[in-house]
Amino acid sequence: MSDLQVKVEQVKALLASAVAEFGAVTFANSLGAEDMVLTDLIAQFQPEIAMFSLDTGRLPQETYDLMQAVRERYAVPLTVYFPESASVETLVAKNGVNGFYDSVEKRKACCFVRKVEPLKRALTGKRAWITGMRRDQAVTRGTLEVSSYDADQGLHKLNPLLDWTNAEVWEYIKQHDVPYNKLHDRFYPSIGCAPCTRNVTPGEDIRSGRWWWESADGKECGLHAGKISKLS
């Protein structure tokens, strides 16, 4: 059995254990390459795990294309959550439609409205949630654990691909013909909102294209990193 096959079996066991232990488990599907590996495994082996995505209202067209591809290929429904329209209107009136470029505080306020608040709704009633985060994605993720209690969200958090390499993610995708965001073919290794994402050059950190105007040691949106300001 190859190293990748061993890791796949470990993920399958972790998913089965999560369902057995927590029952109400949901997968936060950001539609990145890692998340598409998990989408494929969950759909095959643990379809009772719910899946959801957050539509911030500013995603690239390629991400919407992938959402549709997931819907057409997999039997597990992908529930999409949107930000509250009144909160978006208030944010834009206060900071401008692209105010997130002005300061870290304003960018985090935008992330709160478009991501963090919808996530709270998506996790309501769940006992555990799953992400596709990996340790080598960014310096902010080096201390993550495969399984831990998420005090911010008040439920258990699982990162089944935490110790996978980027090469292993893509090996799985190619072996199993898993659909993926076509921006990856244009050197976008990490994809978020369109105005906050750019492609990268060889040798750059794979998360360097996200909020590229900010310092690398604090580039998280608030979904996975402590508290975040509501509106600046």
TrEMBL record:
InterPro entries listed in its UniProt record: APS_reductase, PAPS/APS_Rdtase, PAPS_reduct_dom, Rossmann-like_a/b/a_fold
Query: Which species is this UniProt entry from?
Result: Gallionella capsiferriformans (strain ES-2) (Gallionella ferruginea capsiferriformans (strain ES-2))
- The UniProt record lists the keyword Metal-binding: yes
Name under which the protein is recorded: Adenosine 5'-phosphosulfate reductase
- Mind telling me which Pfam families this protein's record contains? PAPS_reduct (PF01507)
Q: Which UniProt keywords apply?
A: Cytoplasm, Iron, Iron-sulfur, Metal-binding, Oxidoreductase
Q: Which reaction does it catalyse?
A: [thioredoxin]-disulfide + sulfite + AMP + 2 H(+) = adenosine 5'-phosphosulfate + [thioredoxin]-dithiol
Boundaries of every Phosphoadenosine phosphosulphate reductase domain copy? 27-198
